[in-house]
Specification:
The structure holds two protein chains of two kinds. By secondary structure, chain A is an all-alpha fold. Chain A is elongated, with a radius of gyration of 18 Å. Chain B is an all-alpha fold. Classes of the chains: A mainly alpha, B mainly alpha. At the A-B interface, helix 1, helix 2 and helix 3 of A face helix 1, helix 2, helix 3, helix 4 and helix 5 of B. Chain B: It is found in: Cell membrane. Chain B: Keywords: Cell membrane, Membrane, Transmembrane, Transmembrane helix. Chain B: InterPro entries: CPA3_antiporter_subunitB, MnhB, MrpA_C/MbhD.
């Protein structure tokens, strides 16, 4: 048992848990949070694959590591857009203009 | 059982506990706090997986910036959940969903434990070509040289996200100052923090970008720290963003991608192709791209955190 095993299992658990949250929560904010947990699990799968590719003096394969950084930033951009839409819907509901 | 194994197990259980809390918490605020804790502990897990670059990104973007965004949204939503009663799944459906999600997790876990040996790796290739980029950090080499196209598209995604966030502004507010109007706060502690921390934070942010060439760090991590410093001063009412109709602000947002594309096109004529660097100028061009990217990333992150305009100009 080493860090690849432990964090590999953690990644799998996060993907399952995040997906469950996305599918069962009715509140959009909770779905956004769960979707980010699911994303965290997917990034961790990449991280484990990168760690397995350690070699040539590096602690991990730099290519998947760089893609994880790209992924985290893109996930954040998508989250801000989702939150902006959510807050706008909440505003419209409060004004009672959407029904 | 070795000490590192204990640390890994403790980290994994903490991450899982924070994630469970995020999904199971009763109130939105509690779930957001769980999510921020999740991001922070996960960044320690990244260190254990040997990638400090990702750990810095996770701590800055995944926990810090996301935390500010989500806590702000929770405060604005108040008691509103926007959940329809008919959207609440019945217990039987929830159990079935839980079963299939667990099945997926088990299948994924089994797959990850049974990956083929030897593991495929581009590490030797990266090590062999790192000297050509004159960089010491292989992750920066991937981001700015070998997979520069991904990084360019990522920078463009940030621009698109800013356009998306602005486009949900009410018609009457279009062209106004983005975000809520920050009233001058009477809170002296916040004002003091917003005056003392930014000079230190700006130095740390610039250092993260500069050192990214040789050690963990880079444009995204440094840009996030710079953006956080500006947002802190904004929250204390010390600074105000320009109106979204301002041409200057729009140029700031697209400057990074434009410089990146221009240097990429230069490569089409002077080197092997689009986004290739002429061998004699590799390092200066990479630094130029990184500086422009950092600036635009910081501006875009500020605008994403601040949100769409709320009131007429």
């Amino acid at each position: 048992m080493n860090e690849v095993t432990i964090f590999g299992l953690l990644a799998a658990a996060l993907v399952g848990l995040g997906l469950y949250g996305v599918l069962t929560h009715a509140a959009p904010l909770r779905r956004i949070l769960s979707f980010n947990l699911l994303g965290g699990g997917v990034f961790l799968v990449f991280g484990v694959v990168a760690r397995r590719g350690a070699g040539a003096g590096f602690d991990g394969d730099p290519v998947p590591q760089a893609i994880i950084i790209t992924g985290i930033v893109v996930a954040f951009a998508a989250t801000t857009l989702a939150i902006a839409l959510l807050l706008r819907i909440a505003e419209l509901r409060q004004d009672g203009t959407d029904d | 059982m070795s000490a590192t194994l204990l640390i890994d197990l403790a980290l994994a259980f903490s991450v899982l506990a924070a994630a469970l809390w995020t999904v199971a918490a009763r109130r939105a605020f509690e779930a957001v706090v769980g999510f921020v804790a999740f991001g922070l502990v996960l960044s320690l897990a990244w260190v254990r997986l040997g990638t400090v670059d990702v750990a810095l990104t996770e701590a800055a973007v995944g926990a810090g910036a996301s935390g500010v965004l989500l806590l702000g949204a929770t405060a604005r939503l108040g008691a509103q959940t926007l959940a329809e009663v008919r959207d609440q799944p019945a217990m039987a459906l929830r159990i079935a969903t839980g079963f299939f999600c667990a099945l997926l997790a088990v299948a994924l876990g089994w797959t990850l434990l049974n990956l083929g040996d030897p593991a495929p790796s581009l590490a030797p290739l990266a090590a062999a070509n790192l000297a050509a980029t004159e960089l010491g950090n292989p992750v920066s080499g991937v981001l700015l040289a070998w997979r520069a196209l991904d990084t360019l598209l990522e920078a463009v995604v940030l621009v698109l996200a800013v356009i998306g966030v602005w486009s949900v502004a009410p018609d009457g507010a279009w062209g106004g100052i983005p975000g809520d109007i920050q009233p001058p706060r009477r809170d002296p502690a916040l004002r003091l923090a917003a005056q003392i921390i930014p000079p230190i934070g700006v130095v740390i942010g610039v250092h993260l970008v500069w050192t990214g060439a040789e050690a963990p760090g880079g444009a995204f991590q440094g840009g996030t720290v710079l953006a956080a410093m500006w947002v802190l001063a904004w929250m204390a009412g010390l600074v105000r963003p320009p109106a979204v109709s301002s041409r200057r602000l729009r140029v700031w947002v697209i400057l990074g991608p434009i410089v990146f594309i221009a240097i990429g096109l230069l490569g089409s004529f002077l080197a092997d192709g689009f986004l290739a660097y002429p061998a004699a100028f590799t390092k200066p061009l990479i630094l130029l791209v990184e500086a422009a990217l950092t600036f635009s990333i910081a501006v875009a992150l500020v605008l994403l955190l601040v949100g769409p305009p709320k009131a007429a100009p």
